[in-house]
Amino acid sequence: PEAAQRVIALEMGEVDIAYSIEANDVAKIDANPDLVKYAQPSMTCFNYFFNLADADRPTYDLKVRQAIYHAIDIQTIIDTVMNGYATVANSYMPSICVGYNADAERPAYDPELAKQLLAEAGYPDGFYLRIDARNDSDVNADQVSQAIASYLEKVGIKAEVNLLPRASFYEKTSAENLQSSFFMAGWGDSSGEGMVIFNDMLYTYDGKPGMGEGNRGHYSNAEVDALLDQASVEPDQAKRAALAEQVDQIARDEAAYIPLFFKHNIFGVRAGIQYTPSCDDHILAWDFTF
Question: Which of 13, 37, 41 is nearest to 25 (CA)?
């Protein structure tokens, strides 16, 4: 279960395949002639949730959420913290999904605009923000959160990273009893349907059985719910795609969350074994040959 031990076991010949290699261990595999590295972009999007259930929190204000978005230089974080092994996300939805809008752009890194938005929201001197993240994540959530905290500090937000083990993190950030203002999490879906992803992540939590199960920040918009209800029974793919695109744009306009990146799955494999990784995070025996 420990990433460092997986790499050691691979180097010692105790295992033939190691999954979820951390970016900072890739160099060890590249330097070993007996090992081969495979890296495959996944469909799992890592993002930051805002607490939108509590109107008393600063992050409930749209301009504050937009300011935080503009304060983060995600490409630099990917290049440094993730060693390049991630792809910038501008939505929960991977580019291969039905409803993906290739023309939609992520809000630009603009710290001066972030400061302006904070002032317009009534926080010219910033405010305190606790960032919750796991200390045992396989995507360097601790380092990513520290980097984001440093960016927020530059625009006046007094950010403190609160690192928690898995169980404590999920207790604090569960949708049933949300106790966090701003927290990092990930979600993946292999259906290839943007509508299915948004049913999980943007539909009102507890609004309908089976819907909004991943919506831990409690984002809620009646128009979004209605569009997703329509998309869920629309058999025409083009029409379904248009509905998912509308939902995506509304969530962008409302800064419902901050997408960070799609992680890359990195494998270390013993030489002589060939592997074709899948983007849906599934490891299938028939994808290996010898």
Answer: 37
Query: For residue 156, what are its two tokens?
Result: 């006046």
Task: Report yes or no: 271 and 290 within 8 Å, Cβ to Cβ.
Answer: no
Nearest alpha carbon to residue 71 among 37, 114, 25, 40: 114
The dihedral formed by the CA atoms of 46, 59, 218 and 76, expressed in degrees to the nearest 10? -10
Q: Give dist(CA 92, CA 44) in Å, integer.
A: 8
Alpha helices by DSSP H, 12-61: 26-30
Write out the chain's pLDDT in tens, 290 residues.
888 899 999 999 999 999 888 888 899 999 999 999 998 888 999 999 999 999 999 999 999 999 999 999 999 999 999 999 999 999 999 999 999 999 999 999 999 999 999 999 999 999 999 999 999 887 889 999 999 999 999 999 999 999 999 999 999 999 999 999 999 999 988 899 999 999 999 999 988 999 999 999 999 999 999 999 999 999 999 999 999 999 999 999 999 999 999 989 899 999 999 998 888 878 889 999 98
Taking the model in full, what pTM does it have? 0.90
